[in-house]
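Is zinc ion placement plausible here? Inputs below.
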Amino acid sequence: MSNEKLKLEMQDANALAAGYHSWWRYVEIGSIFAFFMLIALIVRRSWQVSEGRGFLIASAFMSGYVMADFISGFVHWMADTWGSTKLKIIGPGLIRPFREHHVDPKAMTRHDVIETNGNNCLISLWVGAICVFMPLESDGALSPVRIFLMVSLGSMIFWVMMTNQFHKWSHLEGNELPGLVRFLQRVHLILPPQHHDVHHTAPFDKYYCITTGWLNWPLTKLGFFKGLERLVTMMTGLVPRADDIGLDAALKVAPPPTDAQPEPKHAQS
Ligand SMILES: [Zn+2]
Ligand SMILES: [Zn+2]
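Reply from A.M.:
I modeled the complex. Tokens:
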């Protein structure tokens, strides 16, 4: 299916942008504040148990970096592919920004620091609380497994929080970015713009990972998200991306149905 032949029925960008309510902004501000309190406590806890465990802490930190890329891809895929902006709470709060982003990719570059980072802080709070309160001892001694878990989850939520910022930078022009950011993009330590362009090509059905993008190639080769879409459609009859690009286009690019699949129906019907 060539992209030119797809008739996309995207939603109106202004209507999507207007869905950013003031009450949600208070939720975001509170979330950012709580998130950084938790991160400070996790860093302090990690520091207290770090002596003689440099390698353990460093490898846990790196695994959190990779996990964040996976989470960014999974959440992005969920929000792009299923549900509607009309759903209660998660519609305006979590789904709307993703829909708006496909219609107007530059809109996020005009978002301030609160709108950029509030959502990711909010969804990370419960994991941060686990890291702060989980016991690190087992059988009366510090457990390397528990320390690894705490540091990797703490690192993961930190990179998840940074994800929207990395994503936003990938949509800014080179001359709008500090040299350090351009360098990190060039060496692919954060999401490079050319790499992310693949996702912004209709029908927006691949390269969902937006922290570093390291997992995009392997997940696409494995058919990971296509396989999940086939499974969800088989169980629910929903058509992936119907609310994002319109039902007709979505039906054309949906994974081929299996025999056991029921008639597809629109996400909003
Ligand atoms: Zn997307
Ligand atoms: Zn983007």
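Short version: The longest strand covers residues 137-138.
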